[in-house]
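Structure tokens please, single chain.
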Amino acid sequence: MDPTLPLNPRRQFLAVATSAMASLGLVAVAIPFVKSMTPSERARAAGGPVDVDLASVAPGTLTTVEWRGRPVWVLHRTPQMLATLANHDAELADPASNEDQQPFYAHNPTRSVRPEFLVATAVCTHLGCIPTFRPELAPPDLGPNWPGGFFCPCHGSRFDLAGRVFRNVPAPRNLEVPPYSFAGNRLIIGEAPNVANT
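Here you go.
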């Protein structure tokens, strides 16, 4: 066939129709593929900030919320709990919280923005177990020097009521402090505070 000759109208129609159908097929395949790469509503919600009403966390109690698929503790410390934090610095691996595992506003002995509230990821820094909340002083199973805190039953790591790790335990670091801020009587986990307000 001579390429300089015009195409038969029927062949021309078939060529255009085939090209159009192939384009539609490509679009029909591409749309679900592209949609599958965007995160679901549930995934977007899991990564977003978590709001906690602090009125529901009574003094001396601990509540657990989920943020980014991990448990996060919110501990409302009493004045008695806060008083114990300065009594055992010599037993801690990092009493001043100098490690770079917490935000700048948690580089203090209470590891918090507001001293009465500890916000910490509830995951042991050794192998990822979840420690238990042991606020009682000197229980028989933890010894006479136990000031209250968190005990990991998996391998015996110990953390005080500020999430600071004790010396000579398997956990290498303090409990992680996630980003958080306050809005009145609400705690927002996953949102760092305005620098001017800290």
